[in-house]
Write a structure and sequence with these properties.
Blueprint lengths: L5 E5 L2 E5 L7 E4 L2 H22 L16
Antiparallel strand pairs: 1-2, 2-3
Amino acid sequence: MQYQVNLKETEEGYTVWCPSLPGCASQGTTKEEAIDNITDAIRSYLEVAQELNQAVESYCVEVELNHA
């Protein structure tokens, strides 16, 4: 599965985060290290989410936005 990640250069290197997974972020001193680190972070995030969602009822709801 592919996830979009955002990468931003900082004074210390690079920060990287996955907008579709709230709170899933990492960093690295190089772009390559940051991408490797966010890949590990996404994997861990999904494993934890899977564990937390076991034996939980899930529903889909439809939400309409009011456009002014």
